[in-house]
Input
Amino acid sequence: MAANFQSPQQKSYDVVIVGGAMYGSSVAWWLSRNPDFDGSILVVERDPSYEFSSTAHTNSCIRQQFSAEVNVKVSQFGAEFIKNFREFMADDEAPEIILQNYGYMYLAGDEAFAETLKESQAIQEKLGSGTRHMSAAEIKADYPFYNVDDIVAGNHNLIDEGYFDGGTIFDWWRKKARANGAEYCANEVVAMGLNATGSAVETITLSTGDVISCGKVINCSGPRAVETSRMAGIEIPVEPRRRYTFIFDAEQPLDRDLPLTIDPSGVHMRTDGQYYLAGCPPSISGADDPAVAYDDFEIDHSLWENYIWPIIATRIPQFEAIKLTNTWVGHYAFNTFDQNAIIGAHTKVENFIFVNGFSGHGLQQSPAMGRGVAELIAYGEYRSLDLSPFGYERIETQTKFVEKAVI
Output
């Protein structure tokens, strides 16, 4: 890879973004379009093919069904952005992005989780969400194909929840950020130089040997986030974890869209065009869910036969006769502390900014989070939406961000 690396055009940049996938490009685009920011931007990406990035292995879904108000608001702006993508791009050639609203269906198999769903629905409704708290009978009436014999209740929302084309948004963010003057460089950050007091990163060193001066460093390294932070002497609880996706065809297709259904077992499944998609963590088999190597995308084929297929066939009897057509493994940038994003500046290395640890929420949160980080860089504060609950300080104080709706 190093043979194809290139040197940046300059020796100094106001902002260096480490990682050019969904989040690096979101921050670069939002910042480059901000009329109050006239600085230089360098985006350093070690693999411009993005073949193994989390962005390339996403399922591109969005939901408002969170229990924390700020997470709901982040997704509400995400839906607004998706539905008005062309206007945000201010380019007649930009495509319309369709949000396919089949919604999320959370199924509760016990009274305790049913009560959690009910409490979350009240929060979502207060913020304008269309989430319904439903009895098992109501679920069965709307979606007769479900087996709900073991279901107590569920939550479902058909407004601004479902699938969108995240890949196209990423492509346009990168394209427009470049058009606005952001420089993308195929290279790898291998070291950082701090000032005498350790309060700021002054330089980054690239794999090619280039030493670049920087005003701010933005960590957008996805599952590799801790490797980037360690160069500045910072530990963060983010690691790569495998997540499996299975695409299948049904001999008897359902007569309506399948919501993104979160089964009590931990398996989730949804409509995927003319096919269906199912996903799960390795723990569905009772195994551990360990950190893996950054290049470990090994597929555990036994998960499908022994766990996934029996679970989805039990939940939807029509799925007893199905054919697996494709499988892939992606990595979550998993925040082991509380499974939520770490956003904002470090408490001591003040020009080191985190955009890390999304734990599977990444694409749906990228419009609001990218906007917020760009505001933080341009103004020193969040202006559109207060993202301070995601700040690094909670890692130091061991104060968890509580979000009950984590998949």
Summary: The first strand starts at residue 12 and ends at 18.
